[in-house]
Amino acid sequence: SLSGCPRAAFAGKKGKLSGDEILNTKFKTSDVLENDEEIKQLNKEISELNESNSEMEAAMVKLQSQISSMEKNLKNIEEENKIIEEQNEALFLELSGLSQALIQSLANIRLPHMEPISEQNFDAYVNTLTDMYTNQECYQNPENKDLLESIKQAVKGIQV
Predict the structure, then answer these.
(1) Which of 30, 31, 33, 139 is most buried (most C-beta within 10 Å)?
(2) What is the three-class DSSP state of 87?
(3) Where are the transmembrane segments (predicted)?
């Protein structure tokens, strides 16, 4: 019988616990309820964090699309600026050629109270010419008419 078996007797002693030992080792009902509330609170916090993460991810996607759009706009603007710079350079070269042609054509014609045309006085010379042609009534005397006619003949061959 088991009562006579030394192994069975030892296992029984080992398996028997006093009442205090049983209370200390078993979970009390209040402990289980407290753990359950903590778990519910942790689950609630996890849900809130997941929701917050989802909102942050949506905001990041929106920001990335805005950044991408801005980069595309910047690239387009840079390309447009490059085209404008090339056009400006071409226009500057054309203007330079026209100003050199005008200087060569008018080199022998002296305007009253001015030195012969050169690169240094080019702007002043052009302003004087512009004034002469916009206010021709002031230049009606025969000497000025001849000057205006000689200027017309000198610049006649310049291709614009």
Answers:
(1) 139
(2) helix
(3) none
Give Cα separations from 118 to 32, 78, 93, 104, 145 (angstroms).
Answer: 103, 38, 18, 9, 23
Q: Amino acid identity of 144?
A: N
How far apart CA 129 and CA 124 sit, in angstroms, is: 9
What is the C-alpha to C-alpha distance for residues 107 and 112, in angstroms, rounded to an integer? 14
CA dist 62 and 56 (Å) reads 10
Per-residue pLDDT in tens (0 to 9) along the chain, 160 residues: 556 666 655 554 555 545 555 455 444 555 555 678 889 999 999 999 999 999 999 999 999 999 999 999 999 999 999 999 999 999 999 989 888 888 888 888 777 777 888 888 888 888 888 887 777 666 667 777 777 777 777 777 777 6
| DSSP assignment letter at 26 | S
> Residue 31 carries which side chain, given as an amino acid letter?
D
- Could you tell me the CA-to-CA distances from 34 to 26, 31, 106 in Å, in that order? 15, 5, 104
Evaluate whether 100 touches 152 at the Cβ level (below 8 Å): no
For residue 121, which phi and psi values (nearest 5 degrees)? -110, 20
